[in-house]
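Narrative progress, year one. The postdoctoral researcher (J.K.) led the effort to move from monomer predictions toward full complexes, under supervision of the PI. The following entry was the first complex the group processed end to end, covering 1092 residues in total.
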Amino acid sequence: MRNQHQNGTNHQVRHYQALSPAQINRFGLVELGSSGPLYRFCVRLFGILALLGIVGFMMRVASSGFSDRAAWGYYVATVVFIFVTFQAAPTVAFAIRAAKGHWRRPVSRIAELFAVVGVLNLILLLPVLFLIPPITGGRKTFWFELHWLLPFSAPGFFLFFGMLALVVCGLCLLYLSALPDFAAARDAKGGIYTGLARGWVGSQRQWKMLKSGLNLLGAFYLMTFVLVTTLFAWDVSETLVPGWKDAIYPAFHSITGLQGAIASTILALGIARKFGGLKNHLHMEQFWGLSKPLLATSLLWFYMGWSTFLTYWYGRTLAEQHVLQLLMFGPYFTVFVMSFLLKFLIPLLFLIWNRVRMSIMGPVLIALSILTGDIFEMVRLYVGPFTITEVGHEMTHVPAAHLPDFADILIIAGAISGAIFIYLVSSKIIPRISLWDMKEGMLLTRVQSFHRAEVLVIGKPE
Amino acid sequence: MQDRKVLTETQINSELLWFVFNKPTRFWVALTISGLLFLSGVTAFAIMVIFGLGVTGLTTIVPWAFMITNFVFWVGISHAGVMISAILRLTQAEWRRPVTRAAEVLTVFALATAAIFPLIHMGRTWRAYWVFPVDFARGIWPSVRSPLIWDPSAIFTYLTGSALFVYVALIPDLAIARDRTTGFSHKFYSALSLGWRGTPAQWRMQVLAGILLSGLILPVFVSVHSIVSWDFGMSLVPNWHATIFAPYFVIGAVHSGVSGVVTVMAGLRIFMKLENYITQDHFDALGRLLTVVATAWLYFFLLEIVYGFLTLETAETAVRELQILHYPYNIMFALIFINSYLIPVPLWLFKRVRRNIWLMFVTTIMVNVGMWLERFIIIVPGLLYRAPLTFVWGDYTPSVIEVTLVVASFGLVSFGFLLFSKVFPIIPIADQKEGQAIQEDIKIGRITVPAVIRE
Amino acid sequence: MVDKSILGLFKDPDSTADAVDSLRKAGFGNHTFDILSGVPYPEGTFGEHGPGHKLFVFPLIGAICGFSVALLLTLGTQVSFPMVQGGKPLIAIPPMMVIMYEGTMLGAILFTVLGVLFESRLPRPGVGLYDTRITEGFIGLLVSCPEEKIGAAEQALRGAGAEDIKTESASGGGR
């Protein structure tokens, strides 16, 4: 940490560490390819759990095949959970970059790295495509079928195509963001980085393209994420439930995703700080900065859910009452309460206090609460609808709750572990802190005296 | 911000108080025109009171039309003001400084104007107090189950909050005016400035008040337009009974409101010659914000339409057909999309357009024409279709009285805004000075990067 | 004993900060002087100590009051006028929540404004010893102390380069 200011003033700037480009490089590059015992233990643990997940998947196929849709509810819920949490995280990198906050620099890469999880989720999505029933089976949807082209229903095709676009966009975003760092690694280590750096020399033209590219790809990622969330809402969930006509649902799902994105990023930051050696890079400012949008998205999540509830509660048609029973007050009531508590009430009651927001442990624990709530939320939104067999304009009865079996538990644990495994492995290839971003930050900030106070001066070049 | 001008405190005081302490002819001309427009509305209202609601185009089938459209429109406009101000304060955006007050004042006058319309629309305006639980003698209480009862509580909260938000931030500027006046004006500004002296504790409270009130007013702002939307959404009228109405109304309000703020800022810059304060950078930043807001609005707009067709219900489909295919609604529908997105957003993608004050002025007015029509298209066609019991197709044509009332509402908002800017500085003086005090530069090689001081 | 006030006017923050140092050296405590400025300078600019405050308690109290009043109103009106509407229960909680939310927020906003005024010690009758040049860019350093220490205060202010010095009884008003 920087020493006390010479003037002996009573107002000090917190957590500012002046580092030279060489110091930043040294720290960021030394960990590439090397690992400690805790890291190795975690990689092995999550790797084994991921393998168990594959065993669970085989058990599911063997016991239920693809014809029993209800048996796959937890599988689908897990796929969507990974989508609205880990895979959503790169949107945070874009949002904070667009907001031009100085504190965001050590956060961006940690959020962008989650893009690699998309590759796993794309593979996990494939069985889901065969689980979505065809439109000709009486589903109410505005899509059309493409039997002559596709082995599965047309909406599934759009979903897969959207997801593919998202994954490709995420990987491009991550690669572009890491390009100057790959060049730094090339100059220090050589090896695979020579190929990855693709001749990056840091010309003015390259920097200009890099910045424009990051903004564009970030915007595309956000828009594609919203689109795919909308498709999940339509095809995988809503159209399975007769009478669930909820125009806000895609937007509600997107907000769930943005909340999950921030929570995933905060949790990753907390773990990286505590166990990953980033104590000198990640300070209260980063957690404080992210806890504000976390509170905002928690409020928005409630707001949109409330809008649905109130409209249905006032409408009181049979279809609306059954949908409320299915999703809130019927067989999944406990799941709904847990989701409400963990995703809204606990975040609200704690995050309204600046003291909690201005801490490290506070936002991390709330992020954990939200991510746990997301598991319940996806069970509520996907397991129930997957048990519906009726088609038509409205449900006539609400099926009983579908509980997870051993295969489901293996699948849930395995898929989430697989996502963490991929993230951990990638973090040894791609620097977890954006080195060029940090260097730029050093150029544009300085601590100086302002009469008797010590202040931080932040340059705003654009 | 790149357009940095270094001004002395004396210069800032004199330039920003010039309009308050002088009597330019253009002010009186503008005030007279807006006052006459407002008076035309008063006359129309008087005619309505004397002859009853029959002088309007309203029928038993279409009881909500022009006046309620106008109510929703002005509530929408009122949203951007405080939202822009609150969000920019919370995110410490430096470019907010000249924008906040005008935006907040627009909120107050737009909201007050909006609140008048349901009262006029009641027909028996003198019974408006029935919405409050005050009439102990009758023993009949307002039903909280009716969304129409939620409206007054929300609007009262928002109007009170916005007015206090404006006032608290105005106190240091009132002290500046107090120090430069004598006689009655001095007494007036002294009373309103409450003895402000500018101690560190007072300044600290100003900063905290900005943050705290912003944080409190943002959720209120969301609730107000949501509640307005629930006036419609809680019913079973086809096209109205949609879960998306609340956020759809809010994002529409933000779209029209931010556009309204840009229109006002452009007007202020031209009318009050505030080029030193309202710069092209502000329009650039607001144009970027508008692009994002407009795209979010489009997402909700499309969701609303898609869901209208999703389950192919007869009544819902019929209303959608009416909105999209039948004259004159099809023209309005097209205009909404063209005016509020198709023309302005591609234009705003170009920096040259965002920095052109006249183009921003015109495109934001276009947006609000589109947004007014959007509210009309939501409200009226839904009522025209009365399938289950009446089997009647309704019709609606606005009367001269209703058109006059709508036009007069623009006069009222302008009148209020002009009067405010004659009595109080419309650009926050102390905020402007603070912006200069924390302005710094960082030299990197041959360039100087504008910088700000953060504590 | 009646305190007297003395106001030193400075052209720039540096000389004001010097004057604050001189006052401290001369034995004046932090509570005996205050800085008056036309601009909110960053905290600590003059080497002053930021006073504590309890502003955040105000919105909490306001929110509780607003919530309680709204709860009473919504519950009371439904109980007093029991009429079934639209198949909804006689005490319908979802619509009550809408009005309770507005009441809570209104209470919180009103009490926040009250809190801001209270913590700013406003309104106050008159401005006390003051100079209108403060809103033109000058910085005032206002010292309130027993009469016998006024001389020492004036010396400290002058020594730091005060442009002008005004004195008056602290209990009196004036501009």
